[in-house]
Amino acid sequence: MTSTGRHENWKPLRTWTRPITPTRRRWSAITMTTSLGPCSSFISPKGCWHNRKRVPVRFTNHVDSCRRCDPDWEKNRKKLADCAPGFARGTTSGKDGEFYVVTDLIDNAADPKPGTLRHAATQTGPHWITFKGSMTIKLQQKLIVTSDKTIDARGANVEVCNGAASDSYSADKKMQVTVDLNHFGKGLVARMPRCRFGFIHVVNNDYNHWFLYAIGGTNNPTIISQGNRYSAPGFGAKEVTCRGLLKSAQWKNWNWVSQGDHFESGAVFTPSGNPSASKRFGADKMMPFKPGQMVPELKNYSFFLFLFVVIIPTLEDHITEYDEYWTARELEAIKNLDKAYHSNPDCWRCDPDWEKNRKKLADCAPGFAQGTTGGKDGEFYVVTDPIDNAADPKPGTLRHAVTQTGPLWITFKGSMTIKLQQELIVTSDKTIDSRGANVEVCNGAGITIQFAKNITIHGLQIHHIIPSKGGKIKDGENHHGLRGDSDGDGVSLFGATNVWLDHLSLHHCADGLIDVVILFGASDSYSADKKMQVTVDLNHFGKGLVERMPRCRFGFIHVINNDYNHWFLYAIGGTNNPTIISQGNRYSSPGFWAKEVTCRGLLKSAQWRNWNWVSQGDHFESGAIFTPSGNPSASKRFGADKMMPFKPGQMVPELKKYAGPLSCSIGRPC
């Protein structure tokens, strides 16, 4: 799988992919973001003129010289089919078919109308698809393009944006990709490209900004970098390459080669493997390259393509059928947010008779979770069966329990492993209490709390969570809903209030461990997130973690007495002026590359210097640094009456000793 770029300022000229075996018609499962933008040169019979100025265009690259100086390009559109370079050579696409003109921008994923892009892309046989005029297309679902198609937007400004996307696959060892003549400019972060498996030829591109890295990969891809210009954007981003969190012994034999590249401002490309790899892998198909010093001239015409779109989760996340039932729950969730905004914390811990007094746990929610009683006012429900049926759960199963109406205190008859077929939708006023049993939710879908309130989950082990395909799921006692694909988060919160996640163990989740979105900071434009209040306390953030522990938009975040001993990018991050109070944490830098605890995105200090980010009583080891901003007394001004008291950071090793699921025996304290 290859993905390119992570920001709206991406300006690709072209990117091609094709399988190694020329006769194989079906593409490997690759999702590429590609486009060919509108012709912006005025072309007369006497030659090419750029932007209608009387300045002759001097093409220095192969593709433009092949087809751009034809004044009758509109009549000879199919000449483009003879110009594919690199590993795309021989790609004729719709050359042998009829023209299909897209006239309608409206997308219907299930029943596309004639004249729409989806209707065109799904026709049998070759087609050369053009557009009647400029348009913006919002895809309801992924656009599945069938074989032998050319989508040609020349002469129109066509944007595909604000819609769906996808990812995965391991047959990518057969992947061959050429990335050439692109300008990767200001604001880009990483993945230009990032590759798994395959053979990637990166040739004559201009890289003048990256925040983390420019070119990355895992799973032993071959990357040949030739004739590129790499200009380091600043002291914090000199290294061009990234191989994830692997040690050099794990990637030293990967073939990553730099030839003819030009380096400025201290940029560095770390090579590995066979320096002659370009001669061994697909060299007969590789484009010739010019020296990196020529890149400014070569990429002159790689401007003005559509912006790379960042897709942000919405209130309707994963709900396929957004019916009256879900509309009502959304409205209820918004009301619950207002009710929960002023909370009130107090106690925490257990007694020797916990098994007889399980519901005492409901009085112990700390910090901003105070007042979360879960199923305290309901009956006990004992889970006896680990089998999951997403559409028709049997009595005695966890799914049957969490979808019942009204409060329930859910326990387990004994230790069990539960593999969820689809997301587990937890309704309001529930406590899932696994004390006294070893309960694992693993190797399937995760847990979702959506438009619900007053929920406690205690003691579960949640791991190896994978995305699910969605479908019909029981999400209420008297309701079944259609869900879209899930992301593979351990626990996802959408529009939820008064939720206490207590003594959980989470690891190896495909997307994230805990994803708190919407009403809790999913969108930069969703101002209701200013009401968000979160306490993150007594956690151990250990080996293998990268970032977002947490990352916040808006709101008030209290980070207290946690142990941070590994992060690859940063530990605590935020945008849109959240208030972050860090008290009594231990920050131990994992290495020379990760000293800074905080991250405020790509913003300049003038933009965040008034944000209230405060460190009090934290303990720093191995050179770790927390960069504060704003009012150092902010903890006294914002929600101080709700904040837990903290112990000095030096005490964290003792304080977090019981992080994760507790080992509880009847008749003894947990």
Automatic annotation (TrEMBL):
Catalytic activity: Eliminative cleavage of (1->4)-alpha-D-galacturonan to give oligosaccharides with 4-deoxy-alpha-D-galact-4-enuronosyl groups at their non-reducing ends
Species whose genome carries this gene: Gossypium tomentosum (Hawaiian cotton)
Family the entry assigns: Belongs to the polysaccharide lyase 1 family.
Enzyme Commission number: 4.2.2.2
Entry GO MF terms: metal ion binding; pectate lyase activity
One example of a Gene Ontology biological process annotation: pectin catabolic process
InterPro entries: AmbAllergen (IPR018082), Pec_lyase (IPR002022), Pec_lyase_N (IPR007524), Pectin_lyas_fold (IPR012334), Pectin_lyase_fold/virulence (IPR011050), PEL (IPR045032)
Protein name, entry field: Pectate lyase
Ranges of residues in domain Pectate lyase: 70-236, 415-593
Co-factor: note: Binds 1 Ca(2+) ion. Required for its activity.
Key word Metal-binding present: yes
Swiss-Prot/TrEMBL cofactor(s): Ca(2+)
Keywords tagged on the record: Calcium, Glycoprotein, Lyase, Metal-binding, Signal
Class in the EC hierarchy, top level: lyase
PANTHER family per UniProt: PECTATE LYASE (PTHR31683:SF208), PECTATE LYASE 18-RELATED (PTHR31683)
Protein's pathway: Glycan metabolism; pectin degradation; 2-dehydro-3-deoxy-D-gluconate from pectin: step 2/5
